[in-house]
Amino acid sequence: MCQRYSGPCGMFSGSPAKAVATRPVVMNSELATAVRERIKITLVLIDNHGYSSVGNVSEQVGCEGFGCHYHFRGPDGKYSGDVQHHDLGKICEGLGARVLTVSSLDEFEKALIDARGSAETTAIVVETDWHERVPGYSTCWWDMATAEVSEMPAVREAREDYVRNKVQQRWLSTLGTDEAAGTR
After folding, report:
1. pLDDT tens digits for 103-144?
2. Thiamine pyrophosphate enzyme TPP-binding domain spans which residues (predicted)?
3. 28 CB burial (10 A radius; 0-12, 13-18, 19+)
4. Could you tell me the pTM of the whole model?
5. Is-contact 101 89, C-beta < 8 A?
6. Residues spanned by the domain of 107
7. pLDDT in tens, 43-60
């Protein structure tokens, strides 16, 4: 929670696929407390109807983005039914925050200027496409171990890819350490 001080306080919540987080998560109780204590917060909520960034990683390791979409169960018993919409703006409004909903960069820029000029805690809800993601997981290597044992062919293939790429892993080193000298 932001403590009383004279500077601005910003928070970011959601799947940070398109933004840099100043703080990764805000709890509903923190938002309610900020409103009650009249602590101004500008909260940017990215609503991609699930966990897009995590879903991308899940898909990369062969797990099909399981649990990362907000869907009802379909007739097949899987989460293949209709989208389960969570109205994040109404939740923030119910906690006392002023809410601005945007769907374009131009609208976001205007909402951010508006929020900065307001004395109230403001939530800017940015609805995005679940499939619009930051390229990167497929163009760089991230040490996210894939299951060694699986019945899913896609997971087994992802494991082989992981093992093949693991040998190329570069270690972050700091000057003056054994790693920098090449002795690990």
Report:
1. 899 999 999 999 999 999 999 999 887 677 665 554 555 666
2. 28-125
3. exposed
4. 0.63
5. yes
6. 10-49+85-134
7. 998 887 777 677 777 777
